[in-house]
Each structure stands twice: as structure tokens, then as C-alpha cells.
Design goal:
single chain; about 400 residues; alpha/beta; Rossmann fold; GMP Synthetase, Chain A, domain 3; 2 domains
Amino acid sequence: MTNPPNLIHFPGAFGTALAARLDLPAQVPRAFALFAHCFTCSKDSLAAARISAALVEHGFGVLRFDFTGLGGSAGDFANTNFSSNVADLVAATAWLRAQHQAPRILIGHSLGGAAVLAAASEIAEAAAVATIGAPFDPAHVQHLLGDAALQIRADGEAEVTLAGRPFRIQKQFLDDLAAQDSAARIGRLRKALLVFHSPRDTYVDIENAARIYAAAKHPKSFVSLDTADHLLTQKSDAAYVAAVLAAWASRYVGPAAATATGTVTPGVVTVRESGEGRYTQDITAGPHHLRADEPESVGGNDSGFTPYDLLLAGLGACTSMTLRMYAEQKKWPLQRVTVTLRHEKIHAKDCADCETREGKIDQIDREIDIAGDLSDAQRARLMDIADKCPVHRTLRSEIAIRTRAAEPR
């Protein structure tokens, strides 16, 4: 089985292959962002995946990768340290620069935030840096090791359980953490800085955000994540971070590009597995982008519309547009149309006006709210027109769906 086209590999700090994914918007990216995940996490952590997906919807290209020895990346985690993570970020930048363009935005979550602050001086093209729940001092992660830190210093290495998984950590890892001079690096940043942190973060105290902010020169900004947890497990928190990030970064990377990539063919929709979850799909139609998925209850990530959501959306949008067109032609004072739709399977025998009498059939309930200073006759006519919308007529008519295999690539 071949990898989805947005899953890539490039050599990291030790020359071993790092697993990465590059998510692109349908239009020309307004800029590229490089995302660094949290300590012992991966590029597919909930925070990384959700923030990246939301940034793509805002027009950014996002590269995220697994540090050496983590996730799908090759190499031995025991040989890595904070400095090698920084070198991995520089290697990721080199690949992005060669294949597309260097990242203008660096984003780091937790220890990944400390890493992007350290790597920023080696990425000249980066104009803005954002940290999420980041420690001021990389050595902060030692508290996760507990008493094992003493064993590591005494024996040279030890196996430590972190987030339910065993990791072998060597003394050189601790020595490298102790050698970092965060205050000096942050003071020399010379790039716009945005610090996200939750006052309820139980892994990295918010005092770390205060120290990062104090050490940095302007322009700098701080955004409180209020009730968010350290890993941003709530989807709404990740969406909020991405929305603020996109608006803030636009000041430093320019407005969204209006030119679409490639040739736009009207009426052509492309649906492609994103590789992010079991069922997650990227949907493009010219310069426009949507995401489809299934609920978590059936094994999906609940990161987008379900297929039936999209079907109902098509009918609802067509209904509203048709009423708007008709009202404008008649010069009627229609203010707003709201269409609410539901889909379910019902027994055919329960449908009074259906030809099918056995088994189950699909039923769509459509409720139309028409706002405006309209007469009863005008409202009744608009309700009649709703059944004449093109998508409604398509769904009620005989449909031929022709399927063919694409040429192997």
C-alpha cells in the first residue's frame, strides 16, 4: 500500500529518515508553517493534527514531522536530545525550502515550543514564532522523569515510562538540557512572538509563559487559553489557537493568495484520503476546500462533515439559493432564508406517498424559515419554488453514476 501523497520523508539530524506530512490548501498557500510536536508525542497528536487542519483551512501550508526516534521516524530516541530536535527542525526547513519555500511561521507545542524558539535564529526566512504551553527552560522536562533522573545520572541511562510508553534516556540528554541558555536565545529572537498558555496547565506552569514573554523583545503577544489542558484535547481549543494564529500571522506574512493552484475545472470535485485518520478526507473544488470524516463513535476523528452532512448541505444550499434568485427576480422583500435538514431511514410502509412499499427508504426532512415582510401568497409560492431547486430535482430523478478506475500512478 502506497503512502498518501502528503506523507513524506527526509533526512534528519542523524541522517535517518524522518516521517512527515505536508498539508496544503486548495489555493496557493499564503505562507508555510512548520509545526513541532510535544515531548514524546508525534506529528499525529490531537493538537498537531487539529491545529494544522484548521490552519490549512485558513490558507496556510503546514509541515509537521516526527522527531528522530518518535512516531514513524527512524533512529534511536536514546541518542537524541534537545539539540538534535533543533537540528531536526533545521533539516525540515531545508526540505521545505528546497521543495516549496521556507517556513514563514514556526509553531511549537510544549517542548516543541522551546525547540522552535531555539531553531528560529537558524531559519532566516521565519518572520513569526508561536509557542503553545511551552516551558521557558527546556530542562523543565526533567520533572517528568521523577526519581529516574537520579538513576540516569548514576548509571548513564535508564528506561522511563512516559505517557504509558517506555523510553530509554541517556545522561547526555540531561546534560544537553542543562546547557541551554533560553533567556539569551529568546532575547535575540528578532521575530514576532505569540505565546499561548493555559492558566490551568498542570504540566507546564503558566509562569513559564511569563518568563518567555519577559525575555522577548517586541513585537510580542500573549493569549490565554483559559480552561484548556496542556495537550489541547478539546477540539474547540485547537480551533481557537489556529484561528488566532492565522489572524496574527497574516500581519507578518501578508494576505491570503487569491490565485488557485493548477487549472480550475468547473464542476469537478476531488476527494482524497488525508492519511490523518481512518476516514478523514480532503475535498477540493477549484480553490475551495472542505473536510469530511466520520464521528468518533464509528472510528473517525469527527474532524469534518459526514458524507450525509455534505448531501444535506448541498440540498440546503441549493434550496436557499433558489429562493433568493426567485425573490430577487420578483423584487420581493425576502430578508433571509434558513434551511434545516435531517436524514433518516424509515420503513417504506410508513411513507404515504412513496411507490416503494417494502424495506426501508431514505427520508429527508427539510424545514424552511423565510424571513421578510412577505404576504401569505408570496410565502406559499416560495415554498413551491423550493421543490424546483436543481439539487432537489436531481435527488428525485433517476441518476446514472458511472465509475471507472483511474490510471495507476
